[in-house]
Amino acid sequence: MTPRQPQQGNSTSSVLGRRLGSELLRIRTAAGLTQPQAAKVLSASTAKIAKMEGGWVPVRDPDIRALCDLYGVHDPGAVGGLLELARIDRERRKAKGWWDDYRSALGVMHEYVTLEHAARTIRTWQPAFIPGLLQTPDYVRRLRQGDPTPTMARRQGPDEEFVTARLARQQRLHDDRPLHLHAVIYEAALRNFPGGAETARGQLDHLSTMTELPNVSLQVYPFSSGPHLGLNSSLNIISFAEPGAMDVVYSEVPFTQLWIEGGEGTAAHVELFQYIAERSLDERQSALLLHSLRKEL
Which tens digit of pLDDT belongs to each residue from 25-70? Predict the structure, then answer.
């Protein structure tokens, strides 16, 4: 995914739009119908159907209902999931939020943050760092100071502005309808802190405090559980309804970001996260490990 959303004329392709479009394409194909047939029921052009399926335009509720009826999709849960995703996509396209004041600081994370703000649940696996939603200001500063790549620093904006933006993200955990966060962290990330013991003390204390929130679940994947495929990169599974319904996956590797918008790719990453979580310490054991690590400092 590039830092800016793909554009086609005056249209913008959003992550949520592409996720919705891919689902509309999937159920149309499963029904054995063509774009012209779908266009006919909407009294629209084939080009409009192509734009809807490509995520280039917002989709109206009446159009979704008409297409679902044509495609033989009558399950209230399936139709409701499509309507909810379309609603969130429409709101995201026109919404203005705190993130717009920090575009330079957020850089390539700007689109992710807008989705995080709309999400109900985030499941995150982090093999190297504390998840951004759980980082202390000192941890963020030390992490930035230790980054040896000027290119990445430029892409993420000034240090203090970046710290402020990171803290603004974390308010989502304390909203009236708070984000539910399930974080799994590799033990290595809890033993290798930028800034050494001072940063570690504050960060470990903060993690312990955050686990007291009812909407935050924290597990540690211990060294003793062995290597697995997920050690290659971090991943975030963004859910806008019940987990599993219309999930989007965001993954980071050095110098690039990947969006996986449905299909087998999303399903594989969800399965990987479940695999990692099942082999991690449970929440009580993880809390005990945090306490033990804190006492060692």
Answer: 999 999 999 999 999 999 999 999 999 999 899 999 999 999 999 9
Tokens 């939603």 belong to residue = 133
- 3-class SS of residue 296: helix
- Which residue ranges form the domains of the chain, and what is each CATH number? 7-94 (1.10.260.40), 98-296 (3.30.870.10)
What pTM does this model have?
0.81
**287 pLDDT tier (thresholds 50, 70, 90):** very high
Is the separation of the CB atoms in 70 and 29 below 8 Å? no
Helix axes 76-94, 15-30, angle to 10 degrees: 150
Between the two ends of the chain, the Cα-to-Cα distance in Å is 40
State the Cα angle at 291 between 238 and 160, rounded to 5°: 55
Rounded-to-10 torsion of CA 110, 173, 266, 230: 100
Average pLDDT of span 118-135:
95
Residue 261 contacts residue 201 (beta carbons within 8 Å) = no
75 in Cβ contact with 61 (< 8 Å): no
Residue 184 neighbours by CB under 8 Å, 6+ apart: 123, 124, 125, 126, 218, 219, 220, 221, 273, 276, 277, 280
Give the pair of three-digit tokens for residue 204: 């470990």
Q: What pLDDT is stored for residue 242 in this prediction?
A: 64
* Amino acid present at 117: H
> pLDDT digits over 141-194, tens only?
998 886 555 554 444 555 788 899 999 999 999 999 999 999 999 999 999 999
Burial 20-50 (b: 16+ CB within 10 A, else e): bbbbbbebbeeeebebeebbeebeeeeebbb
Cα dist from 63 to 25, 36, 79, 148, whole Å? 14, 14, 12, 50
